[in-house]
Request: fold
Amino acid sequence: MTVSAPSFFTTPDGVRLAYREIGEGAPVVLLHGFSSTAVINWITPGHAAAVAAAGRRVILPDLRGHGDSDRSHDPADYPPDVVTDDVFALLEHLKLVDDEFDLGGYSLGGRTSLRAVVRGARPGRLVVAGMGLAGTTKMSGHSFADVFLQVLTDPPPADGTFPPGSPEGRITDFVARIGADRTALRLALGTAVDTPAADLARIDVPTLVVCGDRDDPADARALADVLPHSTFATVKGDHISAANRSDALGSAIATFLGS
Reply:
């Protein structure tokens, strides 16, 4: 099954965003995690192909500041919640209407998918992977955001490296390896808007909450407990390996969307 070359569209505020597609059938939009790309998060590990093989048209955008999308260094291009705005712009561009598509994402992509539903998107089903209640309701002070902000803002230690295996070191290596734009990522991180638990509790879309068993399953379970129509599952791995080194995530998503 072949992944399309990137297509592009322009958002209402003039930013050019990329997306790819694989498969045919009912559409599902899958958003990648922070600092990653559609290729790294969904295509290379085989998750997109697994969902497509279940008879789905899988749509895989690169978020603003990431991948093949524009990586502007102008702070004016990164207002609060603009990544969620971009989801609505993509739905409009593809003419995807209520209940005729599914929506999901990993980490920041899962958080953004929840934001989109709270703001009025109406997918038939929702997937929130690699994200928990704390990261959804309060980004500021969350370890995920704090580590990324430190890596993207502060210069590295004098010897140029963080301690081997440290969260800072792993993120620094990942950002450098994929050629990500540190300035664009830092600006994109600042667009995050928190979602109160009371708003999450009003989501009436069937939702899969799934995370690695060595990520933060307790926090993911807490998110599932708040969502009134949720299914909770774990796959093997930590926050990185559950997404990038296992085919279990794609299988879990395909099974849920087909159930």
